[in-house]
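$ ./design --mode recover --in tokens.txt
reading tokens...
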């Protein structure tokens, strides 16, 4: 387990229209949250294999 603070970032494909997610990949799991809510957003933790699968799926949607 890491005690490092999550480093949140938005996708480079984000157009800043407000409907974005932020991701932190410097943790054991990939953390995902709603960018509109920032620190108030619930955080979803995904195993790295699940995140990879989600990103691969999103390429074809």
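writing sequence...
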């Amino acid at each position: 387990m890491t005690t490092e603070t999550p480093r949140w970032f938005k996708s480079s494909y984000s157009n800043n229209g407000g409907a974005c997610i932020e991701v932190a990949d410097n943790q054991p799991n990939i953390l995902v949250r709603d960018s509109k809510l920032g620190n108030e957003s619930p955080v979803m933790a995904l195993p790295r294999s699940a995140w990879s699968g989600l990103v691969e799926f999103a390429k074809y949607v």
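exit 0
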